[in-house]
Amino acid sequence: MTHPFLDLAPLSATHFAAIEDRVARLLSTTQDVLITQGEALLPLEGAIRSAAGPGTTALNVITGPYGQTFGDWLRDCGATVHDLAVPFHTAVTAARIREALAEHPETDFVSLVHAEAATGNTNPVAEIGEAVREHGALFYVDAVASVGAEPVLPDAWGIDLCVIGAQKAMGGPAGVSAVSVSERAWARMAANPRAPRRSYLSLLDWKERWIDGGRKALPHAPAQLEMLALEACLERIESEGPDVVMARHASAAAATRAGALTLGGGLEPYVREAADAAPVATTLRTPPGTDASELVALALAADPALPLAAGGGALAREMIRVNHYGGDATRGAVLACLAAVGAALAESGRTVDLEAARRAATDAWH
Asked: H or E element: which one contains 309?
């Protein structure tokens, strides 16, 4: 008996390259794009270990947990790291980046997360990229959460290493990811004696065996189902229109924020300024004396499929995250989340106005 998921013809090099070209079009980039055969942590770590070493001086921006991880990887590579940490309820500014670069003029590598789904903030990469480009440093950006929800433009913004994943706003698979690589970044890797080689983390291996060979022979068997799922989600975005997809995410964020502000019960947006809030997820601060993880458990008891989660680690007691990305960037998902959180607050003894929150969210959807 044949099975549609198991009895598939092998994915050809031509097909693989065509999917890479679609990713490049999504990013409006002429840089080399590599689709990596694993979750986005693979190219995120591989890009740092390929481009950074003992001679590197890095400015590592921390606006959430992934920024902390990047600093750890950079130090493990032997780089000198200057962390620029900002409160998780806000975003970093280009002015802060310029100040840090002036304080550490030897900086030749800047690492940044575009949107932190875990904390609900997003950083102004276009303006930051201009500052980094003026300084001459290599610019590394994690756009895993932001791609599909807001513009991600490596060429226009001067990003040398831009990592994306399909599992959030793109609404695709988690087991495949991609990275765009500038010529400057390739040169930095080639000059780095500690860049991974003959390793699953090696971007240079892929360049030499895949890109430099004209993308005619794959280095190893691709993750076929994930590649086909990535192609399908790219087709869906192209069909709906990237601007329409991004507008849907912006509407979901605006509606969630408006509804939360009106709901009452002591709930408020965790990211204080709307301009700093990511369109991929909205984080909410619970009132004092109320445990966020317990509220989420109450909310999910009625509907476990809702895209709700408590904050990670130390934030689990004070933060609720509404993950309105991909298939959940809809008015229905937003209203259902607000209703469930409101019901949980009411059950905990808080006074809420569910109807006012529903009206505010509906009015904010644009």
From this structure: strand 308-310
To which residue do tokens 């003894």 refer? 349
Q: How far apart are CA 284 and CA 303, in angstroms?
A: 19
Tracing tokens 């983390």 back to the chain, one arrives at: 201
Collapse the DSSP code of 4 into the 3-class scheme (helix H, G, I; strand E, B; otherwise coil) and give the result. Answer: coil
CA dist 173 and 227 (Å) reads 8
231-262 pLDDT tens trace: 999 999 999 999 999 999 999 999 999 999 99
For residue 285, what is the enclosing H or E element?
A: strand 282-285
Summarize the chain as % helix, strand, coil (round to 5). 45, 15, 40
Digit-coded pLDDT (tens) for 133-142: 999 999 999 9
| Region of residue 36 (left: phi > 0; alpha: psi -120 to 50; beta: else) | beta
CATH architecture of 13-240: 3-Layer(aba) Sandwich (3.40)
Kindly report the pTM of this predicted structure.
0.96
DSSP β-bridge partners for residue 162: 141, 180
The label of the residue with tokens 């924020």 reads: 257
Q: Do strands 308-310 and 319-322 pair parallel, antiparallel, or not at all (unpaired)? A: antiparallel
Residue of 115, 52, 81 lying closest to 275 (CA atoms): 115
Q: Which residues on adjacent β-strands are paired with residue 111?
A: 60, 140
Please tell us whether the domain made up of 242-364 is placed in CATH 3.30.450.20: no
